[in-house]
């Protein structure tokens, strides 16, 4: 639980842009203070009223005046209810689950009961709501009880729906998180074993290089095996990419060239851990190492006041020879994680021209 | 025993070379960094065993092995791979062998011994197992004593003539000894049978025309002369051209 809350906190820090959200923003009880929730609530109440209005009973008539009077009565109740829910929510969400459910559920019926009783003294003017001109008290009692029971039923359906749909959303979110973590751990196993092989060859030949390769490899796997979805910084991410490329340069020798132009980037920009490395690994695996004479990977970064953009470009074999499958996995992984952390604020663009592959990651600062 | 090392990574080659140096009766006859030069070296060195990396640029290890399988006396192949490869699982418990990287000296020695013992069976195994494994990306032919590799995408048509099949490609013609039927089975998606003696590249079909003498001719991009379409294949070809 504590870990979950901690985790949520981290994510929220990334979503600085959407700073309105609070710790309670993902409670099943929605924030009724927002315009869209109020509109939804009023429309729902009106829908319930229309069902009652249209229901075939002996005394019902479909007059416009009755519709207008009823609608204003219902909207009045709906507005009072929704404002009450808005005000009560901070208190309700702190309580036990049972209290929260009961409280939220009873707001609408209680409001309806009170509103209906308030109307009682105005009985003469009720003729529009109740078609009978003469208003025996039995009718008035039924008016109040009926309204309250209808409100109770409608409220049950509404909150049951909110509760269930939130459970489903939680479930989906949990699955997405699990997937994120599983995908994150996926540094290609080929890479690990090829690196081990490289190091085995280096030990007798160039022990210093072997040492450095082991340090670099340790750094990469520390990042890859870290539990959960961590936030890192742009600077640390670029450092990780450098270490990765150091190992690949030992392996591929002269075939791998890298051109960096990342000067002046805001290195403290928060960024999900291991976001860039899979893209650079793609550039090596599907690009440079698939070409007999190798090639150059360009890593270019730019920043403005709102965003940091990183572009990774690499040559690659022509389509007909591109036999290495799995290009999409790393890209999908990065795309999912960007969506998870930033929503629509970040994006990954891919440009696959004949012989050249470019991807561009844009994240908010 | 003459051994050839094929791997695109210099350090991986160096490691295998140093391991081989410690094994008695083994002579390292060459190293190749890619599939094309591997095939050329195999021609010139007559190696008994080839240590073949799977993941290589352009022509990978499996395809090199496929080309080897067509040789009269192919060398024994020992695949090397960094991580379990589906293609290799087929070879488990067969005369073919494979090593995982980093390769252990003892394991390498055992594989070499095995290769020597089963050399006859291994080549038969290779022929049997590999055609299923994967379509080639190149056609390999001998041309004036040297080996030539033509990418499948450069080929316009295969035309059978007497004992040979003529490969018409962007830079000329080559003769190969594979039957047209085998080529059709392997490249059925990229090449269509247009005549008893001809397979044409689907991608390159330009026009279907009638010659003055009534024969149907198919023009292919990059080829000077059109190829003849037999009446038997015409209907199927028309149907296919319409969906292109």
What does this structure look like?
The complex is a heterodimer of chains A (365) and B (244). Chain A has 365 residues and is of the alpha+beta class. In chain A, 59% of the residues lie in helices and 13% in strands. Chain A is built from 10 helices and 7 strands. Chain A has helices at 2-14, 35-54, 64-92, 97-119, 137-184, 189-205, 207-225, 234-252, 277-287, 327-342, and strands at residues 231-233, 256-261, 270-272, 295-303, 307-315, 347-353, 356-364. A 5-stranded mixed beta sheet of chain A has the order 2-4-5-7-6, covered by helices on one side. A two-stranded antiparallel ribbon of chain A has the order 1-3. In chain A, a hairpin with a 2-residue loop joins strand 6 and strand 7 (356-364). Chain A is elongated and about 105 Å long. Chain B is α/β, with parallel strands linked by helices. Chain B is 34% helix and 32% strand. In chain B, the strands form 4 sheets. In chain B, strands 2-1-3-4-5 form a 5-stranded parallel beta sheet, sandwiched between helices. In chain B, strand 8 (155-161) and strand 9 form a beta hairpin. The longest helix of chain B has 15 residues, at 119-133. The relative contact order of chain B is 0.09.
Q: Percent helix among the residues of chain A? A: 55-70%
Task: Give the radius of gyration of chain A.
Answer: 31 Å
If interface size is counted as residues with C-beta under 8 Å from the partner's C-beta, which chains form the largest one?
A: A-B, 28 and 25 residues
Radius of gyration computed on alpha carbons of chain B? 21 Å
Oligomer: heterodimer
Number of strands of chain A: 7
Topology as H/E string of chain A?
HHHHHHHEHEEHEEHEE
Treating each run of at least 4 consecutive H or I residues as one helix, how many helices of chain A? 10
Distance between the terminal alpha carbons of chain A, to the nearest Å? Answer: 29 Å
Helix and strand content put the structural class of chain B at alpha/beta
What keyword list fits this structure?
heterodimer; A: 365 residues; alpha+beta; 5-stranded mixed β-sheet; two-stranded antiparallel sheet; 7 strands; elongated; disordered N terminus; B: 244 residues; alpha/beta; 5-stranded parallel β-sheet; 5-stranded antiparallel β-sheet; 34% helix; 32% strand
